[in-house]
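Deliverable D4.2, example record:
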Amino acid sequence: MAKKPKLKFNVGEQISGNQLAATVLGYVLYKEYDNQDKKHYYFEEWELSGIVEFDSWIEYDHYSNKVSRYTPISRDFKTVTGGAIGATAEDDPAPYDQNARYNVASVAASEGNLSYPSTIGDQLHYLEVQSPQGKFVIERFANGDVDLYRQQEVTKAQQKELFGRVIAPSFLRRTWAKILMWISISVVIIAATFGFPSYTNDCTPRSTSTSSTLNGSSELSTSTSSETQNSSTSCRRRFMWNSGGGGAGK
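Output generated by the structure prediction step:
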């Protein structure tokens, strides 16, 4: 099943919050392969117009569940990042200190009228740097363009202020959805294996407690009490599966 974006945005939607009015231009869904875990991780970036003049993005990380705001800033890398990124980063986005992290992701899906048109399989090279001035990300796109962004996490309270609502998917809703899905799968598997349950009224001799004399001694004969009794028999409702096993009561 193809991955889909999870933020509560719609392409072309007009957003009006307490701090901004913007238009959702579209999104790019990226996947990044982890050699250690041997699987892909996903994140999505939505482009909004109206936050600043152009090229502003909202990112959602599917693994960490964090929402971040990417604001384009000056391309004077060395000055903006306090020297954490040198000027040569534009030509070769590689780590410059221990706080830098270099990654390569590829486009898994996209939709909308974006400032950087992308197709499935296009690669995005990006460098994340944490400096005293904040967290910065350099992105180099398939067409060779390189941009510098300031990355800031957006809390749920800030999402309400910016967008008029929480845009991150609900953690509890996702958790319950998964639980219900596995319960449904388990029920289907059990039903397919054992069949659906049915009931039958099974009548047995009434439970009694009698005293008899055998060889001159008195012995007590008992049987288990039944749920429903009449003058001669007692009936109980038995739960049985429609399977080909030993039959009900076995």
